[in-house]
Specification:
The protein has about 450 residues and is of the alpha+beta class. It is built from 14 helices and 12 strands.
Length: about 450
Amino acid sequence: MRSPLHALLALVAPTLIALTLIAASPAPAQDAAAEEGPPPLPEAVVDPATPVEDLVLRLTPLTRDELAAAAEAWLALVKEKTQEVVDAQIAAREAADAPGGDAEREKVVTLTEERRRLFASYSTVVDAWERKAGDADQIAAYRAYRTAIVVDETRSADYQTLLKQATAWALSEDGGVGLAIDLAVIAASLAGLIFVARMARRITRRGVARVPNLSKLLQAFFVVLVYWIVLAVGLMVVLSALGLDITPVFALIGGASFILAFALQSTLGNLAAGLMIMINRPFDEGDYVSVAGVAGTVKAVSIMSTTVTTPDNQVIVIPNASVWGDVITNVTTSPERRVDLVFGIGYGDDMGKAQEVLTRLVEAHPLVLDDPAPMIKVGALGASSVDFLVRPWVKGADYWTVYWDLTQQVKAAFDAEGISIPFPQQVEYSRPWSDVAPQKTIVPSDPDKKA
């Protein structure tokens, strides 16, 4: 008699065996699927009749491995067509002088055009494979194959065949005609972009002119910046619409920026200084300034340099780095300026009379301001003269007029009043060999004057 344990095992064992078989059964199916490889490509992807525009869209969902398979399939198509071209070229060469030579050349041209369209689809597949991180060495080999074929066939073809091929390419819609249309579209687009950019510049100029406390330099900078941004963005949109891949342009700009940053350090310094000048506004166009050892009127400030015109009409261009890195003196910003004059009289002259003459002349000048009041004081006892400090206040635009007028009027008034304006003198003592008292001789510092 069997025990209950034996009876339970007899019931459970068949169930365990069945479950084990079910769990193990998918393995052969999975192995078979793995051996079969990736699913086949859609027929339209490897169909020579598929237009390039449609092929670009059909390649979008494919994976990297599927694109590698597509590139291999297109390589086979191109290779087959190239063999036909080679056979036709050999036949055309053998029949060069025969009556059917032109027909053979026409056949070469026809086959070359067919292969050129295949190459267009071939390159589209290779480019899509590269964008999805395909093997760089294989991609380079695929592209080198096309280049080698074109170069070798061009080198070995006779001039008549090359002429027919060039004519056929120039007259084809996807060749010369298509290129001419693209160039015309680009030219028209550039004209339109320039028009739009100018309109944007005009609108920007009107807008920034209404912003309070915005310098002319910063206004000009914003206007130029908007103009070039509109041109750049519009040009990229046009190129993308024509089917050109502009991604390499961004990659090129990103890579070149590091090199340019080191090669153009001084230029970038001028650029940064120009931005600081425009933002901080130490001066504006039309101001009279003294910067980097140059004094003159600011005529223009670009992002790289400042143009100053000196009083004798010299035009000097100063790099912005030198301007921003030096002391900037702006004599136009303040509406009022003080004219600093110094007049010396002799020690034997009447100081009160001299002060009265100076006060009369300053108060009588129509351009001298009453407030702030002018200052006329004895400033120093010099080696040869008593120096008066004359400091009237004037409008900024009247500075040099008052300076020259008072200088001339004071000289004339001192001469009329008998007040001397001494020149520097030095006293020399000489002792003769005898015991006579020392003799004093007055020697003028200027050899053209006599004591």
